[in-house]
Amino acid sequence: MDKNIRWLLAEIDRWKAEGLVTPEQGDRIRQRYEQPPADAPAEAVPWGMLVFATAGAIVIGLGVILLFAYNWDQIPKFGKLALVFAALIGTHAGGIRLLTRDGWQPKLGEALVALGTMFYGAGIWLVAQIYHIDEHYPNGFLFWALGALALAWAIRSTANGLLAVVLLTIWGSCEVFDFRSPEYWSVLLVAGGLLPLAWKQRSALLLAASIAALQFLIAVNVFHWGAGAHAFTASLALGVLLVAAARLTEADRPDFAAGAGVMRIFGFGAFLFCSYLLSFHDAADDLLDWTRNYGPRPAFASAIGWTLFGAGLAGWTWIARRSLLQRELEIRREEWLLPIALIYCFGVAVLDPRGYSLLVSWSFNFILLGLAIMWIWRGCQDSRLGPTVLGSLLLSAVVLARYFDLFQSLAARGLAFIVLGVFFVAEAMYYRKMRQTKGGSA
């Protein structure tokens, strides 16, 4: 069944529960869309076929490359060129031909085009070796990535998009780590070339890979330009922005709920990681200090951080308008801690944190505790295991951190663990009680 139909059927139940449609109307709508017409085309090939076929194509490509590399010296120059271009043209021509057909064949064609992209990359390096071209080697990854990106858009290929993500990340990393020459184009190509493709294709996998690459490239580039404090605040701002984007996607694009989930995971992951580091006062002293350890281009690093800050704040301002004034969105209380923490961090960084590091660490301890307790409370109230477990893990992480960072006495440490254990026992009993109240199994 198509994912859009599954979403619609789930929405019909909500409409009936909320009284938007009568039970009879809901049943009629369900009957109309639940059963496909007799002449409807067969269901699309599952994503598993695309993933494994693409992985197989990439492995085959690597094997062929290594096989030719083993006998490369014995092949004449024109033979080498003929092999390179024949493999490149043959795989792309075959893949594009399959893309025009019906049924499962377009998926196989996409895998074949991905294999052709592998041969295209191999051709770049082999032609350079044949003619002894001594060039800045990261450019090979750049041209390879641009070819994959162009094909991804031309045939709407998730597989080629994933290849482009990997190659752009390699290119950006090589420029930073090997040549100390960060390229903001790596960030722009991922953000402007791959995120829109993931959105258009409604591909959660491509979106996850693109966000991961974007977080990494922003961190390493900004770290080189403006040292660790700028990279840290930029990463925090990006996390807050991603959570805002997830909430807006849930409200406005329910057909891409998987994408909203990806953005929420990466956003909260970045926010919790940054908040956890700031809960240590020594770390807070360094991570928010923009006046120390300037890099070669601090103004550029600062501009990226402030851009992400402005985008994140704009997103949460729009959410506040729609949830508080227009009552269109329902935002959980604990999520308002994210924009508050973002404003707080940038304000401290501007003022110089050296006199506020202890205050910052205690503030983020309370923020983490607040998130943990509210997640646990909501999970128990709704009899949902996910938020309950996440809140418990976060609470445990905060207490364990204080075990090494705060308490000096063994008695104090032991008491902290006793209190935590009692809390978990009470939590388990309350969770069981709420499940029984709601009619669930204990």
Main sheet characteristics? none
Q: Low-confidence parts, pLDDT < 50 over ≥5 residues? A: 38-45
Average pLDDT metric:
84
Percent of residues in helices? over 70%
First-residue to last-residue Cα separation: 33 Å
SS strand fraction: under 5%
What Rg, in angstroms, do the CA atoms define?
26 Å
- Helix and strand element order: HHHHHHHHHHHHHHHH
Please count the helical segments.
16
The assembly state of the depicted protein chains is single chain
Anisotropy-based shape = globular
Number of strands: 0
- Class based on secondary structure composition and strand pairing: mainly alpha
**In total, how many domains does the architecture comprise?**
4
Give a quick precis of the structure.
The protein is globular and about 75 Å long. Residues 38-45 have low confidence and may be disordered.
Report on the structure:
The protein is mainly alpha-helical and 442 residues long. It folds into four domains: 1-40, no CATH class; 41-133; 180-355, no CATH class; 379-442. It is 80% helix and 0% strand. The chain contains 16 helices and no strands. The radius of gyration is 26 Å and the shape is globular.
